[in-house]
Amino acid sequence: MQDDLFGDASPSLPEGFRYERDIVPRILQEMLLEMMPRLPFRAFEFHGFEGKRRVVSFGWKYDFSSEEVRKIEAMPPMLLPLRKLAADFAQLPPENLEQALITEYDVGAPIGWHRDKAVFGNVVGISLLSSCTLRLRRRTAGRWQRASVILEPGSAYLLSGPVRWEWEHSIPAVERLRYSITFRELRARASA
């Protein structure tokens, strides 16, 4: 783990953040990476703009124009073993992780500062193919608290509690092709 990327002397990561390397067995990583080219990825759309990354969702999809989630295609069976690993890591029942977002970050693709939408609860992220830096920040008493961690291929992280609700996160432009699979709990349902 790496702290102090932005000059904060804080020696620890935020409360509610967990990280574990090598949680996904190599054979499962290879199987998942083999299926990636067959997925129906589309450019990430946000209020009329397209991001540099491509995404595909399963279970539920957040619609930025209506600001609601809607039921979509169920999680494919090939994601269920990974969902079980993610749920065990987060100490949740697998069925609680109802949404999966697979993101393809091509070279140079970032994700800006954000908090996942409030319709989602705990967030578990799985990193595949190459590493990246996950940056965390929150503003308190007029100054930024910051921390970062290198997400290695096959690793998992959990955003829960204070880090989920009080902190933002981002990923700077990646240097190599990378995939992430993000599992989320659903807190509220809008349209089925």
From TrEMBL:
Q: Which SUPFAM superfamilies match?
A: Clavaminate synthase-like
Does the keyword section mention Oxidoreductase?
Answer: yes
* Keywords from the UniProt entry: Dioxygenase, Oxidoreductase
Look up keyword Plastid and say if it applies: no
Q: Name one Pfam family in it.
A: 2OG-FeII_Oxy_2
Domain called Fe2OG dioxygenase: residue spans: 96-187
MF (Gene Ontology): dioxygenase activity
- Protein name, please? Alkylated DNA repair dioxygenase AlkB
